[in-house]
Every structure is written in structure tokens, then in C-alpha cells.
Write a structure and sequence with these properties.
CATH superfamily of the largest domain: Glycogen Phosphorylase B
Protein name: Glycosyltransferase family 4 protein
Largest sheet: 8 strands, mixed
Structural class: alpha/beta
Number of domains: 2
CATH class of the largest domain: Alpha Beta
GO molecular function: glycosyltransferase activity
Shape: globular
InterPro entries: Glyco_trans_1, Glyco_trans_4-like_N
CATH topology of the largest domain: Rossmann fold
Keywords: Transferase
Radius of gyration: 22 Å
Length: 409
Amino acid sequence: MASASGIVYASFDRFPAPKGAAVHIRAFVEALGAAFGGVDLLALRDGPTASATPHPLVEGVTYHPLDARGRDLVAQALSFRTHLAAWWRDRPRASVVHVRSIFEGYPVARRKEALTDALVFEVNGLPSIELKYHHPDVAEDAELMLKLVAQEDVCIARADLLVTPSEVTAEYLVKRGAEASRVRVIPNGVELEVFRHAPPRGLEPGRPVRLLYSGTMTSWQGVHHVIEALRLLRAEVPAVLTLVGPLRKHQRRVLMERCGDLLLEGAVELREPMPQDALAALHHECDAVLVPLPVNDRNCVQGCCPLKLLEAMASGTPVIASNLPVVRTLAEPDEVLLVRPGSPKAIAEAVKDLRANPALGPALSARARARVERDFTWARAREALVVAYEEQLGMKRRREGLSPEAERG
């Protein structure tokens, strides 16, 4: 790779931000900066008041905040591509370009030979599947959907390395034409010093059961099943539900209508996204964390690696999660309570099981934490990414470091 230098990591995501994508981006660019140096991170600045000036992020990484203006997603994506192209003008070719979506990846894939020696396509989700959940009107635009699939196919075909956090997603990429030898599964991780372990709270007479759901407040994540489970549970025991996550105006209206009397009774609490340390503390104030993923193409065909599941397992708060392949690859039945997907009744029954069996929660808590410590730390994910760059792309570390032994702790 003598003909080029440096790594460009481009992402059509807001950074920094209290979202799983931003946590993931930081972990990966820190790993690449420490191992290889010369990393340029290009991502959306987090709001119009955030700095637009390039600045060092960590050693070996420079962050270049970019804008994406427009009334809808397509306009914003085209705006981001324009800003990305302007940044790149008159710059040398990169050794590696690492992209997280087709919105920044497709223009690079089309001009791969002129821009870089190697293309890394990190697939956490594909817009041909995911956009209809975020932007329902998109699914009705058949021409746009065909373009999205075509651009995904180009990125998949031209990538020298495809990185994904889920075994299910890896299988889907192979079905879409990717060579299995070019696909690396690197699960999401947890910062153990942030999500510290604490045993579950003990039962106290008169204290309501407190449940936690964090993430996107949409049906494809199953938040509606959580709300209905709360209704069933409150028919027998006092319970409250804390919902943490971003809400657009329309989503807030729909969610509040669904909650209805539960909000008036103080049984549901809505919270904005919060920093990881605050979220970790909130875990310890709750009796169970709910991960109610329903059966749909996003969860069962494309796949995902729910960061909220891993963070909850690390915190020690008992987890109730849907019994889906994307969950079973991360947790065994003796580490989390696996319940039938799409069943509010099954969620409510699992909560009652925790209350009826005081030994169950602590046993789940200890085994879940041990599993995360063994398999799902960001240190492990960072090392896996660097090894993939070495083995698949021929990159050389600039110094010793990021060894499994040194990073494991």
C-alpha cells in the first residue's frame, strides 16, 4: 500500500452523540488510530451549534465534522456526499476508506481505484430494509428502493472487507453475494468501567417493580409490547416503566396515545437519551431491562447486535429479551430470560418469575456479566478490527499494542 497513506473513516451518523452508533464509531476509530495512525474521521456534527472545525479526537485520529442539510433523508444524504467530496478534493488517495453505509460508501465504491487501495464496508444495517421503519413513506417509493438495493450491491461487491456485528447479518450478506472469506463478524462491545456490575435490587414491600427500556421508540424495536406488558403486570403488581430514547414529534404523539392512562397514573416515565454513565446508573435503579425485539425482516433477516442487551448484561440488572437468533448469539438462557417474541404476556410472566424466585435474578446477573467480560468488551472488538485490517488488507501496526493480553482487563 505504498501508493497511498492514511485511513479515512466516513460515516453518515451524528458524532459525538448519546447513541449506539456514536459509541461504536469512537471505539473503532480509537483502535485504528492507536494501531495505524493517520485516521481522518468524517461524520455529521451533532447539531448546528457544534463545532465545524477539524480537531484531534484521540492520538492518531483527526475529526472533521461535516454538515448534511435538507428537508428529507435523501436530500441530507446528497448534501453529505457533496461535503465529503469537497473535503476530499486535492487530497491524496487513502490506504483504506472505511464506510458505515451506502450514503457515504456508494460514491467511494464507484471510484474505488482513484480514491483508495482498499474499501471496508461496515454493515450494521442496510437502508433497503431499515428505512421503512424510520421513514414509512420511503417504502412506497419503488424506484428509490430499487436504487438503494443497487447501491448496496455495489458496495458489497467492491468491498475488500465487510465488517458486521451479527452472525445473522453475515449470513444475509453472503446471500446478497458477498464472499464469505471477506466477511468478519465483530460484535458490539461494552465499556466495563462505565457499565459496572451491581447485583440486582432486592425486593422491598410496597416498592413497585421498575422496568427499563432504552432505544428507538418504534414498533420494530418492540416498544409497544413493553407498554402492553406493563398494563398486564399492573393488574397484579405495582409497576413502573422508564422509556429512554430519542423521539421525533410524530413518534412522541403516537407513543403518548399508546401509553394513555399509564402516563396519567405515573406508570410510564419518558426520558431523553442520556450519556452512558447516566444510563449505567439508571440500570442499577431498575429491577429488569427489557429487550423486546419482534419478528420482522430487520431483526430476523438482516440481523442486528443490540448494544442495549450487552450493556444491560454488563450492569447486572436482569434482562428479559426476545428469543431470536440475534439474541441467542449473545446470551444463553441461563444469562438472560428468553421469552416468546411479540408477546406482552410472556414479558409480564418473566417479570413475575423474577419476583417469585429471589435467587433467579442474582444467578442471571452473575452469569451475564461473566459472559460480557469474556466475549463482548470494546477492547476485544477493537483488537478484532485491527486483526481484520492486518489479515485482510495487509496493514502493519505502527507499534506494538492492542494485544489481547494487554487489552483484556
